Amino acid sequence: MEELAKRPSAKGAAEMFTGDVWFDVIYAGQEPSRMRANMVRIAPCARTAWHTHAMGQTLHVTEGIGLVQSRGGEVVVMRPGDTVHTPPGEWHWHGAAPEHFVTHLAL
Q: Is the pTM of this model over 0.70?
């Protein structure tokens, strides 16, 4: 067993996010693991750019109200306890509702 050191919070890069987004890396696996877990905090109206993940992405909302959309799909509202999975290669974005922060685990 290994206790992992807590890394400092990081501000999301402007080319990847609109608005204020902060994240904490909880775990970043080393090869051959592909596991990564981030706690992401998104300010009202902020969001990611359109993006994909080679292995897909799972979001689990812990607080607030968020939004997620796959290209060509409807905007889906996410609330605490909701879990959303985006399959490998699917273009999508996720962010906070206009009047609410959202915090989610990104896996």
A: yes
